[in-house]
């Protein structure tokens, strides 16, 4: 089962910030500056966390994971927006 997560980060160094951003792009959709929405199964969540640890400074940086529910269900409706509406990005296969 896939679960939707809102992942936000506060990285204090510009080089580490770019590295964290690159990791996050592999796992989710960029929603706002330091915010991603990720639809992950348990194994993918572990892989994401494992990919973040080596590019972070554990004493200075922070990544927060908010479980917003199953991908099919609450995860689709848990985000409410003021101003510009929030749009779920449709993931599609890319043929190269």
Could you explain the architecture of this structure?
It is a single chain. It is built from three helices and four strands. The chain is an alpha+beta fold. It has a four-stranded antiparallel sheet with strand order 2-3-1-4. The longest helix has 14 residues, at 14-27.
Question: Care to give the gist of this entry?
Answer:
The chain is an alpha+beta fold and 96 residues long. It has helices spanning 14-27, 42-52, 74-77, and strands at 3-10, 29-32, 35-40, 62-70.
List keywords for this structure.
96 residues; 4 strands; 30% helix; alpha+beta
What topology does this entry show?
Blueprint: E1 3-10, H1 14-27, E2 29-32, E3 35-40, H2 42-52, E4 62-70, H3 74-77
Antiparallel strand pairs: 1-3, 1-4, 2-3
Helix pairs in contact: 1-2
Strand content: 25-35%
Q: Spans of 5+ residues with little confidence (pLDDT < 50)?
A: none
**Ends distance:** 28 Å
Number of helices: 3
Q: What proportion of the residues is helical, as a percent range?
A: 25-40%
Q: Measured on Cα atoms, how large is the radius of gyration?
A: 14 Å
Sketch the topology as an H/E string, one letter per element.
EHEEHEH
**Number of strand segments:** 4
Q: Can you summarize the main beta sheet? A: 4 strands, antiparallel
- Overall geometry: globular
